[in-house]
Specification:
Radius of gyration: 22 Å
Distance between the termini: 74 Å
Helix content: 55-70%
Number of domains: 2
Low-confidence stretches: 1-20
Structural class: mainly alpha
Order of helices and strands: HHHHHHH
Largest sheet: none
């Protein structure tokens, strides 16, 4: 027996047949989007801007992953920005969140020895990235002369 749209529809945004890429879904998730959704050109322009900005943020985050700093946080922020308009980005973000949650749960179940080893590996990776930077590009010009960097 096929369920009709009225019988199937629940709270806003729970209709499983409606794509996240549809303009109606965008209006439900973001009320300000109704203005853009009324005009096809504005809607397309808005989606292109979101795609370019989101992809740029993701690429910057990927470049920053091996360096000390918030590389993964920037990648997730870019994915979250893309997920406001694109269903594939939302699915990828949900998948990544699940993997991070699983990793976090696994680490919290480990002994202090394993947690310390994981932290040590992280510190060694950061130290290796800093060493590689200094070996490749040399000491940055903004570092004072009295700082003992090789």
């Amino acid at each position: 027996m096929r369920v009709t749209g009225e019988e199937q529809a629940g709270p806003v945004g729970t209709n499983t047949e409606e794509s996240l890429d549809s303009p109606a879904s965008a209006r439900e998730r973001h009320p300000f989007r109704a203005f853009f959704a009324r005009n096809r050109t504005l809607d397309l322009t808005y989606r292109i801007v979101i795609a370019v900005v989101g992809a740029t943020v993701v690429v910057v985050g990927i470049v920053l992953i091996p360096l000390p700093g918030p590389g993964w946080l920037i990648v997730f922020a870019g994915l979250a920005l893309l997920a406001t308009e694109f269903a594939w980005a939302d699915r990828l973000l949900q998948y990544a969140r699940g993997k991070v949650r699983g990793w976090t749960d696994w680490v919290t179940r480990q002994s202090w020895l394993v947690r310390g080893a994981i932290g040590l590996v992280g510190l060694l990776a950061i130290g290796g990235a800093v060493w590689l930077y200094l070996a490749t590009l040399g000491t940055p010009g903004w570092v004072p002369e009295w700082v003992p960097i090789v």
